[in-house]
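Render Nuclear pore complex protein Nup85 in 3D.
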Amino acid sequence: MQMPSFNGGDFVPYANSPVSAGGDGAPVVHTVHHSMASTPRVLVSWGPGNTLRLSYLPQVVRDGDDDMKISSSREGDAANGQVVEVKLGKKDDQPLAEKRALAYSSAQAFALLQNQKQQMLQSDGGSSRTGTFDWWQAVLEYSQIISATLGPASGPPGSATDFSGFPTKELQASTKPTTVKAIWDLVEIFYVDKNGASWLPERLVEWLASYDAVLSSNTLHTKLTKLQQRLVNLRFPEEEKEYWDGVASALAVGWLDIAVYLLRMHGSYQHDQIDNRNVENGLVETVAVLISKMPRLRPSLPAGAPGQAFDFKPEFSKAWEKWRSQVAKLDGSTYWGECNNITTQKGLKKLLKVLLGSIEDLLLSTTHWMELLVAHLLHVQPFSKVSEGLAGYAVKCVESKGDSGMNESTSANDPLQELTLAILSDDTEVVVAECTRLFDPWLMAHLMELLTAKSKYAQSILREERYALGGISLEELNRLSYAQVLCSHQLTWQLAPVYLSFCPRQGLGILETLLLKQPVSTSDRLALKVLEVCRLYDLGTVATTVNRIVGVHHWKHGRKGAGIAWLQRAQDDRRLAAVADELLESVSLGMSGSQMETLQELEGLVDLLGSELHSSQGLTFLHRYKDFKTGLQIIKKLRKQETDQQKIAEQGRQAADFLLQLLKPQVTPQRFWLPLLRDAVARALTCQGPR
């Protein structure tokens, strides 16, 4: 039985699916002809993917003239049975081509990483540990390939929203990130990248800039998008409270380019205002310059990004203290008394408090607990590492936003909260449980390598063989689950061996079952694909069985040459002998007239069978009879050409030897002796010609 795929969805649309066929979700009904002379039958079976087939075959009644009639309670069904296909799952769970593309793209990266792991284990003498110095770098490269496959990057840090002044709804809809990519990149930060641990706050700033929109329905991304729509029609945005709230929010979470851009939309920059608002414009520009020179603990910055990058912590610490003193000096400057615009004065003061790490202002400037955590790490604890109480900070941020994380309403508004907290807390077991609950098997099959990249504890719990799971590990279980999803459709089943081959306990057994259940008799191309998989994974027994199945199918359906070729691939001497005997039976009524013509038509098949099959009496007879007949034809040809009589006599002796070989015991069946002698005499007379 094929299992449903991707939580009710499939990889590709089926041509006979209810939605594609009827458009209104009505089941598809097929009409079938049958000749089963028995009671009415109802059959239930799985079709491709999530299609359930219900078949009804009415009773066939034979009358006195051996004619068949269908007995049915409905007049319209009086000649046929019916097969109804029902698509299980939600109506809106439509298959997407992107899922199939993702499956093919990720399989190559997965196989490459597994091969690297095997080479590493062989070089380490077969040790099961993969904690060598550069293994995490191999996993990091693999993670980046998968991340790129999941979708394009959202841009440089801080570019969560485009503030060019034009509507960007269509752009946002086409490039909106997914929760799968968000979780994948977050796991990479905390479980794989060792180098990123030293500049964790900046990594989280980048991550939040890309995925803030998927955390919840109410985030800074939503807030700034609404602000953008209002700014188009505002000449003096500084008079609006939402403007200063937006600048403070962008500044709190480290989106410095947005903060600087918004500040320079201030009305004091306009040509007709700058002379009258000189001090106000100076204060705004000073704050913008301070933001642009904010020290940032990271290896480098993208071109044109605000801030100053420091890779060495002592240098960053020194620059950080100097910069903070400049912010504090501006906060206590006497120029504030000369600023006549109270709204601008309050707004800029709020920005300075955010830069100085005011907990109250950071709390007011963020909407989601993850935003508050990033703001806290960036402005209060810029030296934080993963191991330095990050989980405690995260829990406090959740509590500060009024969410305990335990009630149902919170889970509904923020479904990723438990999973995100587990990643921040390095709680691998909860990460596995939540990913299994929230996402399809694809994620867990590929995420295991990230979780075990540098954590020995994660390796122990994910690769431990569990009695309750039949002796397999959680890692193998997730690969098997994903392989079953791939097996659910003919366009993705060929990817399943990639994952099954790396399941040491049950993988090869399930792979053999998968290959043997493929309908190879319906398509030679499919059979060749199965044989190629057998060759790659050294499944000789399965290859033999497949060749035998295809060969017997071709033979039974009259394609005798193809059947013989496939049976020879299977090296099935017993069935080839049966084929030879069947060929012999086709000429068993005599060796003259139409039967001789039949034998001539079978010569090609006899040649195809070859002469190495010693177990078949019929095949031996057919080969030797063909040699005898060929010898007589050569004599006839030589006589026509008036060749030397010595050559003709020599060829005649050779034909006589072929005849004697035919008359040896256990070569020619007894029923052919008399027809064979008659045929030999007749051919000999024909070869002599008129005297």
